[in-house]
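Sequence, C-alpha cells quoted for completeness.
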Amino acid sequence: MTHEDYMRRAIALAEECFSSGDVPVGCVIVSPSGEIIGEGRNRREADRSATAHAEVEAITDACRRLGSWRLEGCTLYVTLEPCPMCAGAIINSRVAEVRYGAREEKSGCCGSVLNLFEERFNHRPRLYGGLLEAECRALLERFFGGLRGSGEI
C-alpha cells in the first residue's frame, strides 16, 4: 500500500463521523511492515468525551494489538493536523512518523500554531503535511457547511 492508500483509509474513517455529528477526523497507524495496526475516528460528540480524538483512539487500538505502549517504527496517518493533546500522545507513544492531510489553523501543533515535534522532548517524530490535503479539507468544509446551513453554528 502507498501513503495515499493509508490516508484514504483514514478518510473513510472520518466519513463515519457524519452519522454522530462529530467533526470528521480519521486516523490509522501502520506498522513498519505496512500492516494497519490501529484505527480511530473522532468520537467527542458520540462519547461525550474531550479526549475521544481519532489519534488517541488509533494509538490505543495499536497499543492493544501490539501489547505495548511503544509504537516505535510506526507511521500515523491522520486527516487533520494533530492538536496539542494528540501531538503529546504521539510523542509519548514513540510514533516514528506522522503524515497529516489538512492544516488546523486554530489548534494544530505540527506547525500551524506551533510544532511540538520541534521542542526538546525525548522523542521527535518525522512530520509530513499535506497528504491528500484537498480531500481532507473537503470533508471539513462539507461538515461545517452543513452546520452553517442548519443554523447550528
In short: Strands lie at 26-30, 36-41, 75-80, 97-102, 126-128. The chain has a mean pLDDT of 94. The two ends are 39 Å apart (CA to CA).
